[in-house]
Design goal:
Strand order of the largest sheet: 3-2-1-4-5-6-7
GO molecular function, one term: UFM1 activating enzyme activity
Structural class: alpha/beta
Number of strands: 7
Radius of gyration: 38 Å
InterPro entries: D-isomer_DH_CS1, ThiF/MoeB/HesA, ThiF_NAD_FAD-bd, Ubiquitin-activating_enz
Distance between the termini: 141 Å
Largest sheet: 7 strands, mixed
CATH superfamily of the domain at 83-337: NAD(P)-binding Rossmann-like Domain
Number of helices: 12
Family: Belongs to the ubiquitin-activating E1 family. UBA5 subfamily.
GO cellular component, one term: cytosol
Order of helices and strands: HHHEHEHEHEHEEHHEHHH
Protein name: Ubiquitin-like modifier-activating enzyme 5
């Protein structure tokens, strides 16, 4: 539409210089152009208005009703807290772009987007990007799409390469920015999601998060597009990305030399969509504190296999900031364990405070499973008149009957008589 308006302005300028005999025909042409632009404006998609407060009201015009249902069903304590969180996504490619869209639809408060690349037609096999965005930077294209989906989300885009000195400094300063939540402790973001496709960029994210003591999640998809993984990295508590480097990097091989000319990695939107879904699912569990956050979760598409594991930090890690975070974690362990124990005790007291259900239509009660009060059950409970229990209860011990008294002398005398009768001559 922008090009159409520029042409219309040019036509108006030329109209001023037109001779009087051609004036009427030029005006008719301009009328047709204006009508065409009006039709374009009417056919353009309507933008969603901002919503001040999240509501659980179940109406068609409420964009958050399905999300707030998680709170009504007891999955999340307070879903509206999602608006307080800031999430940084490094790499707006096959995984990062889909993760950004999911978080935007979930209503996250603030998204920081980092990438240096532009949209190409070769990216159309993936989700999110559209052909008309070819040539735009991925960050600008993402802001264009995401702002239309949910204008409530604060979007910040950074078109830069974080592996350069200047790019890394800008990356660090943007993570420290607390304008969105000045009262927040630590850095200005709650979680960093790494969705890059090379080891060098992962190491840059790892260095920044170790220095800032920032929790982050790493993700990746294999070159053959049939496997992927996500990993939670908490500085000092879990292994950082330098604690256990990949074999190719530990061997001193530059991964950039492994790429051959004219050969690119495979890419499946299905695999990337699955990995992005797992990444955002664990992001929501981490931020809103529900369920169990996976420390490491793999995905093998060929066998639908999801391996899990947990990696401890390496005390001899080559990253000095990681070693410092490990020392801080060990020092704070007693206080952390005491707080966790106190929380468990408090939760136990809450469960013993009263009955789980106020109404009890069937008069169901819970009794102590210790020793029974009596050995016999009343014969009248639950039985019609005249019917009694024939078999004893399985929990009642019945002693064996006492043996009858036997006279050994009488038995011996009886046996002797029988022997004498057998030995007597037959007459």
């Amino acid at each position: 539409m922008e090009a159409e308006l520029k042409e219309l302005l040019n036509d108006l300028e030329s109209l001023k210089r037109s001779p009087p005999d051609l004036l009427n025909s030029s005006i008719d042409k301009l009328k047709m152009r204006v009508e065409h632009l009006s039709n374009l404006a009417k056919s353009s998609p309507a933008r969603r208005s901002k919503v001040k407060d999240m509501s659980a009201e179940v109406i068609d015009s409420n964009p958050y009703s399905r999300l707030m249902a998680l709170q009504r069903m007891g999955i999340v304590h307070n879903y509206e807290r999602i608006r307080e969180f800031s999430v940084a996504i490094v790499g707006i490619g096959g995984v990062g772009s889909v993760a950004a869209e999911m978080l935007t639809r979930c209503g996250v408060g603030r998204l920081l987007l980092y990438d240096y690349d532009t949209v190409e037609l070769a990216n159309m096999n993936r989700l999110f990007f559209r052909p008309e965005q070819v040539g735009m930077t991925k960050t600008d294209a993402a802001v264009q799409t995401l702002s239309d989906i949910n204008p409530d989300v604060v979007l910040e885009s950074y078109t830069l390469n974080i592996t350069t000195v200047q790019g890394f400094e800008t990356f660090m300063s943007s993570l420290k920015n607390k304008k969105f939540r000045p009262e927040k402790e630590g850095s200005g973001v709650d979680l960093v999601l790494s969705c890059v496709d090379n080891y060098e960029a992962r190491m840059a994210v790892n260095q920044a998060c170790n220095e800032l003591n920032q929790t982050w999640m790493e993700s990746g998809v294999s070159e053959d597009a049939v496997s992927g993984h996500i990993q939670l990295l908490i500085p000092g508590e879990t292994a950082c990305f330098a604690c256990v480097p990949p074999l190719v990097v530990a061997s001193g091989i530059d991964e950039r030399t492994l790429k051959r000319e004219g050969v690119c990695a495979a890419s499946l939107p299905t695999t990337m969509g699955v990995v992005a879904g797992l990444l955002v699912q664990n992001t929501l569990k981490y931020l809103l504190q529900f369920g169990q956050v996976s420390r490491y979760l793999g995905y093998n598409a060929l066998k639908d296999y999801f391996p899990t594991m947990e990696m401890k930090p390496n005390p001899q890690c080559s990253n000095a900031a990681c070693v410092d975070r490990q020392k801080e974690y060990i020092i704070a362990r007693p206080a952390r364990e005491a707080a966790a124990k106190a929380e468990m005790v408090a939760e136990a007291l809450l469960f013993t405070g009263g009955p789980l259900h106020a109404d009890n239509e069937w008069s169901i009660s819970v009794v102590d499973d210790g020793e029974p009060d009596g050995l016999d059950f009343p014969s009248s409970v639950g039985l019609p008149e005249g019917v009694v229990h024939e078999l004893p209860s399985a929990d009642v011990f019945r002693p064996p009957p006492a043996p009858e008294a036997v006279c050994l002398a009488d038995d011996l005398e009886d046996l002797r008589r029988q022997l004498d009768a057998l030995n007597a001559p037959q007459g």
